[in-house]
Design brief:
The structure is a homodimer. By secondary structure, chain A is α/β, with parallel strands linked by helices. The first copy, chain A, has three domains: about 90 residues, Barwin-like endoglucanases (Beta Barrel); about 210 residues, 3-Layer(aba) Sandwich (Pyrimidine Nucleoside Phosphorylase, Chain A, domain 2); about 80 residues, Aldehyde Oxidoreductase, domain 3 (Alpha-Beta Complex), CATH 3.90.1170.30. Helix content of chain A is about 40%, strand content about 20%. Chain A has 17 helices and 18 strands. In chain A, the strands form five sheets. A six-stranded mixed beta barrel of chain A has the order 1-5-2-4-3-6. A four-stranded antiparallel sheet of chain A has the order 12-15-17-13. A three-stranded parallel sheet of chain A has the order 7-10-11, with helices on both faces. In chain A, helix 2 crosses helix 4. The termini of chain A are far apart. Strand 1 of chain A pairs antiparallel with strand 4 of chain B.
């Protein structure tokens, strides 16, 4: 039957007479969403009367934010003339305790009309997406509104809409402009634990002479993001000025993107996508490309691992994903290569920031114990990037990459980057609590479940505890004897550690077959 | 392109070694969602490490609930060995301060796999919907998960799925069984302020001798629900035993459904639908029919107002809605009649619990000032219900209804119901703060905007403040002179009142044309 979606325009008082309260910082952190605490007897606005629409507009220090109210029944915490401001709202609003804050029932942002239109099957325009991205970046939507948008888009989004969303997300944040004709980057769509090839590819490519100013993310649901692992080796929380200084000196950097504010709307979408475990091709394309375009890249190699427990599970999915990536990249002036790689099992041995950083350095230092799979993958990716150099012929990139690794150039470049970025604030030792997960039978490793392995590493404390994680002793296909250690769990907090040990006891994620 | 939706199975420790904390009631109310406050240094589980999946499982007093964590940085509020429990979680869990509570990272409920399947376009089965309704009723989903489900269903739901969801929602709550062969009810799909015909229809129909045990809802986004208005006249928070006593005595009741726990999953869906302002035919059918079936009705008259600012705006929408209602009603053994009514403007004069109750009583008491539109509509609806009586011929119902109103039987029945339900806990006077909204030009009332009028009444404080609301002096088509009062705003809290006055000043919702 036809779908009827009904919109309800809210009625809002004029700005002139909103209620005035005194700001009070609260020692709470609501993690992402804007929340205010109001006394049940609040003098400006009775929170009990907002039950239906449940949003208030908060004005202070020249800013105007939307928030979800909670009710406080203790005047010692929040009095009737006060407004309790937990983090992150307190920080976002930028007021001090005691400052005047105005509050009024919120009119839903106009961008939500577009969400309702999308639910009803409409195709949205560039200006609709511009408004959506601006409101997302300004944290004007509640989590449930973000979820509604994501799912409405999951059902139907044209390639032109994906392009429009990508462009809107770029415009809603900062943008880095570089004076170099060629700015390269690589990105992996994720889902493979231990896959830290970026930290090897970047110094190789920079040693060749290409510019690779890499901004990366911290982990959201994985045991380590590129930024988390780099932080074991160097400072990563650089602002734009500090980042530019590193790139001028070294030709490359690997920093956390949080302080340069690239595609902030993407951060909001991801923070809801991940707990919902929903990841559509359209969101993936808009998310990745908006970040890369905002970072000023013009040549991108995209690593798409395929495997039974990876994000992309078959060749058909790769084909449609590649088409969409190519469409949006071409229209935004980004040169893009998609590289399909093996996503059947973790890459390298370590999983978790410290253990992954150890693997990265062992490859760069050409140690005997360096994981071959990590090295080979990095060489392959670096080779493709190097071929973007007009001076390098097709098919010559890998040999050049290998030469730069083997003659120590890549290691020296990495050391220069580390020095330029500054000393790591992180204790680089693996967690001192350990537990060996052993094979209960002899045979051959038949399969390693990426999701399960990542889950155990998360429970052990990674990436929040950088030394937590797993050290894998086997790869798929390897022979194994009963009693041998399949992997070692590292951690440092007994509370977290035992969650990981218990989870591995139920299902360790490594299947051994006779 | 093909849609790829990827599921991520979470890893969970075994139950044997979850972390133990001491319960601490907090004087906060998170309104609906389950929230816990954990110290950043919590001994059982570091909340900072949950950022990705953001859900914890809380076990205490034999119950096991899921909740979203917030972080507390003040050990005086929540210490490392404590778990802070705001309302409603504290109440739902049923522990006392100091009781042991176990906590562990939550495995997403299995029912969320169905949501992801639905997002991917799957048709779900009866057992999928059974699991979904059970988890909704047990508050196991976060708001963003509920939103994802609603929007995924908005895109595509077969009639069989709507039937399955309806049945699942009935099964997930309590169910009233009556010994009467015919149990009638009426329901309005809503959106028209002042439309309190149920309070007139019920005593008329009961005076005729039919059984009409009515459970109704409180307002969520409207200025008054049937339960809110009835509460001005009598107690409505009756449990099942008290309700049965009233029905045995009077043949009817009008109570709030909250204590008899009918279709609790519906309450959860509605609490997210409303702030999102999304209302699909499928959800409307499942919501209304699950409540009526659970309440034990077998004959329902459904009032569907059509109008430019009503929920249903044209005859095409009514047709598809009627088909879906009829399909699900027939398969669940419910006899259903759909009555299309005028939804172009508010019904009656009062808007808000006290003012609406005044209108209802003036109709039952046959006063000269009784609103004719409200009386006529109630007679029409009551007539159709009375015709469900095998003794009454088609076309005879309305005359019978009018006779029962005119001879005072309906009023006496209402008085008996009020006495049986118990004295109202509510101050029945209109709010003492008043403001007259006057016509700025002479002419004719061209249109009254139901949404705007409802919004102004909500801002004035209705229904939380029962005396707040509007008293309408004109109907569409009436002649009006500049300076005449279009409506009077009532309120009792200065803070709320001025929001309403300001909103009416911007756009009063009554359009006067020359």
């Amino acid at each position: 039957m036809a779908l009827t979606v009904l919109s309800q325009s809210a009625v809002q008082p004029s700005s002139a007479r909103s209620g005035r309260l005194l700001a009070k910082a609260l020692p709470f952190d609501t993690i992402r969403e804007n929340v205010v605490l109001l006394s049940r007897d609040c003098l400006a606005l009775r929170p009990g009367r907002l039950l239906g629409l449940r949003r208030v507009e908060v004005r202070g220090a020249g800013k105007c934010l939307l928030a979800s109210p909670m009710i406080c029944d203790d005047p010692a915490v929040v009095g009737p003339d006060e407004i309790g401001l937990p983090q992150p709202l307190f920080h976002r609003l930028g007021v001090r305790t005691g400052d005047p804050v105005e509050i009024l029932p919120a009119r839903p942002p106009r961008s939500l009309d577009s969400v309702r239109a999308k639910i009803g099957g409409a195709t949205l325009s560039q200006s609709d997406y511009d408004e959506i991205a601006r409101d997302l970046a300004a944290h004007r939507w509640s989590d449930m509104e973000v979820a509604a948008f994501l799912i409405a888009c999951a059902s139907l989004m044209t390639p032109e809409e994906t392009l429009a969303l990508t462009r809107a997300m770029v415009s809603a944040g900062g943008r880095l402009i570089w004076d170099y004709p060629l700015v390269v980057d690589k990105h992996c769509i994720g889902g493979i634990p231990g896959n830290r090839s970026s930290l090897i590819v970047t110094p190789i490519v920079a040693a060749h002479g290409l510019k690779m100013p890499k901004t990366s993310s911290r982990a959201i649901t994985s045991p380590a993001g590129t930024a988390d692992t780099m932080e074991v080796l160097a400072r990563v929380d650089l602002d734009e000025t500090a980042m530019r200084r590193v790139v001028e000196t070294c030709g490359a950097c690997v920093i956390w993107g949080g302080r340069v504010n690239l595609s902030p709307a993407d951060d909001v979408l991801i923070s809801v996508e991940r707990p919902l475990s929903v990841d559509t091709p359209e969101q993936m394309v808009a998310s990745i490309l908006s970040k890369k375009i905002a970072a000023g890249s013009n040549h991108l190699v995209l690593d798409v691992p395929i495997g039974p427990t990876a994000k992309v599970r078959d060749a058909g999915a790769v084909l449609s994903l590649r088409k969409l990536f190519t469409f949006v990249a071409r229209r935004t002036g980004l040169s893009l290569e998609v590289l399909v790689t093996d996503g059947s099992q973790p890459i390298g041995r370590g999983i978790g920031p410290v253990l992954e950083a150890r693997d990265v350095m062992s490859v760069l230092e050409r140690r005997a114990e360096a994981p071959v799979d990590l090295r080979d993958k990095a060489i392959r990716l670096a080779g493709r990037l190097i071929e973007a150099d007009p001076e390098v012929g097709l098919g010559e990139g890998e040999a050049r990459a290998l030469a730069l690794l083997n003659d120590g150039s890549a290691l020296r470049k990495m050391q220069a980057m580390i020095e330029a970025q500054g000393a790591s604030p992180v204790d680089g030792r693996p967690g001192s609590l350990t537990h060996e997960v052993v094979a209960t039978r002899s045979g051959r490793v038949a399969a390693i479940d990426c999701l399960r392995i990542a889950g155990v590493a998360r429970l052990a404390g990674a990436p929040d505890d950088p030394g937590a994680g797993l050290d894998m002793m086997f790869r798929a296909g390897d022979p194994v004897r009963a009693g041998e250690t399949l992997y070692r769990i590292h951690g440092s907090e007994p509370a977290d550690f035992r969650f990981a040990v218990d989870a591995a006891g139920e299902d360790c994620g490594v299947r051994v077959e006779a």
